[in-house]
């Protein structure tokens, strides 16, 4: 269930009228997703059909939206397949419905895949490199709001729920990541706007082609390597065992490298990036598991999945980055 806030056809038609966006022909709540309320919305305008997704932001505040929606607009304008936000009559990309900030974005084709093939991992790697390049001249700056400062603030909140040995793992990794973030090697890594939540469920595939990437609402400025690590940790595993698949890793990393070659410095920071990416989602899943939102009838995602991934990366189980 992911319609936290109901919108009636009459309410939406009234909202569309303010921006002359046309006549509503279909409105359907979307069941998946855990962060926001989403609807599929069809309208006709000047005799043509348009297919959109309406998102009501349940937690985000209007101060964060210009970065996310502006980045999607910037990437879409450069031909990167992402939902393009619709500009409203107020000249910006977001408005308000039922007391929640909201946005209308174009609906993309495709379906998410549970177990991507090597060809699909390659499509993902190439998309990610092109997105990093295309985002490099985006004018707005916003940090990754689920970055180091958030881990430092949230780890002590979830730690008391964990057995002592797992608490020690959490504290040790956080301390190492804190020290690592101060090294010049880390600070000089290529960086810019990154998606930062590029899991399989955020990619819509049409066979081996990428229809597009959705859900930019954790995007922020961070190292490209962090984005790569988040994506590899989710895309290149055998879903049944959680272990990395060599063929998928190779396809994903080679495709990225062919568009945006890896630097020596990225190779040196790779293990810590993979560990950071595992730590980030371990902490957020622990938080959602032990401190769930009161109104949300949701099954929390398994935090132990990322505890195991962190342990595997600390033990050296990861592929090397290709070098030219
Ligand atoms: N632009 C789009 N085009 C096509 N389908 C979309 C689009 N945006 C969202 N969807 C559909 O809506 C579903 C829920 O969207 P999304 O994953 O963004 O949910 P969320 O609650 O906002 O985020 P989260 O993934 O963090 O739970 C997606 O799985 C996808 O099926
Ligand atoms: N991708 C996140 C969910 C929120 O975006 C996870 O799997 O924990």
TrEMBL record:
BP GO terms, sorted: threonine biosynthetic process
EC number from the UniProt entry: 2.7.1.39
Domain Aminoglycoside phosphotransferase residues, every copy: 27-262
GO molecular function: ATP binding; homoserine kinase activity
Pathway: Amino-acid biosynthesis; L-threonine biosynthesis; L-threonine from L-aspartate: step 4/5
Pfam assignment, any one: APH
Annotated keywords: Amino-acid biosynthesis, ATP-binding, Kinase, Nucleotide-binding, Threonine biosynthesis, Transferase
The reaction(s) this protein catalyses: L-homoserine + ATP = O-phospho-L-homoserine + ADP + H(+)
Cited SUPFAM superfamilies: Protein kinase-like (PK-like)
First-level EC class: transferase
Protein family per UniProt: Belongs to the pseudomonas-type ThrB family.
NCBIfam families with a match to the protein in the record: PRK05231.1, thrB_alt
Name of the protein described by the UniProt record: Homoserine kinase
Organism expressing this protein natively: Parvibium lacunae
Gene name of this polypeptide: thrB
């Amino acid at each position: 269930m992911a319609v936290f806030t109901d919108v009636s056809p009459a309410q939406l038609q009234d909202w569309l009228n303010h921006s002359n966006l046309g006549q509503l022909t279909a409105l359907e709540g979307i069941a998946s997703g855990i962060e926001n309320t989403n609807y599929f919305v069809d309208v006709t305008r000047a005799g043509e059909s348009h297919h959109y997704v309406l998102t009501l932001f349940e937690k985000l505040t209007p101060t964060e939206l210009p970065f996310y929606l502006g980045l999607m607009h910037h990437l879409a304008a450069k031909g990167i397949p992402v939902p393009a936000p619709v500009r409203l009559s107020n000249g910006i990309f977001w408005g308000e419905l039922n007391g929640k900030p909201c946005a209308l974005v174009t609906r993309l084709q495709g379906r998410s895949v549970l177990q991507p093939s090597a060809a699909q991992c390659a499509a993902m790697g190439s998309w990610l490199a092109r997105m990093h390049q295309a985002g490099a001249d985006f004018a707005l700056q916003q940090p990754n709001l689920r970055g180091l400062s958030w881990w430092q603030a949230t780890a002590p909140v979830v730690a008391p729920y964990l057995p002592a040995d797992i608490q020690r793992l959490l504290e040790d990794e956080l301390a190492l990541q804190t020290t690592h973030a101060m090294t010049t090697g880390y600070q000089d890594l290529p960086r810019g706007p990154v998606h930062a939540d590029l899991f399989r469920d955020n990619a819509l595939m049409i066979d081996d082609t990428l229809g597009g990437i959705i859900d930019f609402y954790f995007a922020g400025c961070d190292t490209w390597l962090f984005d790569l690590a988040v994506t590899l940790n989710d895309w290149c595993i055998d879903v049944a065992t959680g272990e990395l698949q060599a063929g998928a890793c190779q396809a994903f990393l080679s495709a990225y490298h062919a568009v945006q070659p890896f630097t020596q410095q990225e190779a040196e920071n790779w293990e810590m990036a993979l560990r950071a990416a595992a730590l980030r989602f371990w902490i957020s899943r622990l938080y959602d598991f032990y401190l769930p939102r009161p109104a949300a009838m949701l099954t929390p995602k398994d935090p132990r999945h990322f505890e195991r991934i962190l342990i595997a990366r600390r033990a050296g189980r990861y592929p090397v980055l290709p070098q030219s």
